[in-house]
Amino acid sequence: MLEKKEIAALMILPLILNACSTAPKSMLTGAIAGGVVGAGVGQAHSQNSGGTAVGAVVGMGLGSLIGYLSHKDKMKNQEPKVIGDKPIEDWSPSITKPKIRSYMVPDTIDGNKYIKGHRVFVLESPGEWSKD
After folding, report:
1. For the residues 35-55, what does the mean pLDDT come to?
2. Could you tell me which residues come within 8 angstroms of residue 72 by beta carbon, excluding any fewer than 6 positions away?
3. pTM for this one?
């Protein structure tokens, strides 16, 4: 029988795996997790293989439904924002890449100090606002 920690890990697994996925992957992940949890609950409740099978089937159905609905909700929230007919990204300016120069300073000894060689970065021009 599964320990409480194992059951908790199995219940959290779909949330972790469902972060960025397609609808079929979300449904499959939900079905697998639901089936495992359902089988565990069915076994704990009935103490026989029939109850385990029923729990697994019900868990798979509920898990795939939850996976589909969560994916659908996630996609609805990710629709591009528009102002008029242009995406919001077209309305905001971007920043150009800064110009950076670097050089190496060799190992040096200054009195009783040893200074290990290192790279120095110099910002020659910062990024600028651009509408391109």
Report:
1. 79
2. 23
3. 0.43
